[in-house]
Amino acid sequence: MAVDLAQVNVSRLLAPLESALLAPFVAALDEVNAEGDRAPGFLWRLQTEDGNATAVEAFGWDVAGSHGVIVNLTTWTSVETLADFVFAGRHLDIMRRRREWFARATEATTALWWVPAGHRPSTDEAEDRVRRLRRDGPTVDAFTLRHPFAAPGHVGPPPRAGDDRLCPA
């Protein structure tokens, strides 16, 4: 069976999305999203008519006293192609500044899992995977870039678990 890699990231906002504090982040969204859309291995991302997902309502149970959450939900061809995008270019620039805009996470905020090729995961599915990762740690059902699992039926070496290139930020 052919598979794609699903990825969700949820971030708790330190201020309202419309605030001056988050203005640099919001200003960079279109450029970062466009870079991601062109990245090798990129397949799909959740977005509204505005071209991003800032208005998507999900993970309401995870607000934890913040000014809300934003969700990034995408699919990719592999762990490596996702990592190549996440830890390079404009996205890496934004990641390096994330403490300016988002609350420090005390538990998993990013989950990866394998889906049938062409499947577009829902926010409910993404919420379930984050909950699984928080409850069980990395498993084939919900894992991280630092602790990846090979795709079902994969032949060859597994993804580079613990490879610092996969989590340099």
From TrEMBL:
Q: What is the lineage of its organism?
A: Bacteria, Bacillati, Actinomycetota, Actinomycetes, Geodermatophilales
Q: Which organism is it from?
A: Goekera deserti
Ranges where the DUF3291 domain occurs: 5-147
Protein name, entry field: DUF3291 domain-containing protein
Q: What domain of life is recorded for the organism?
A: Bacteria
Any Pfam family hit: DUF3291
Which residues lie within the region annotated Disordered? 148-169
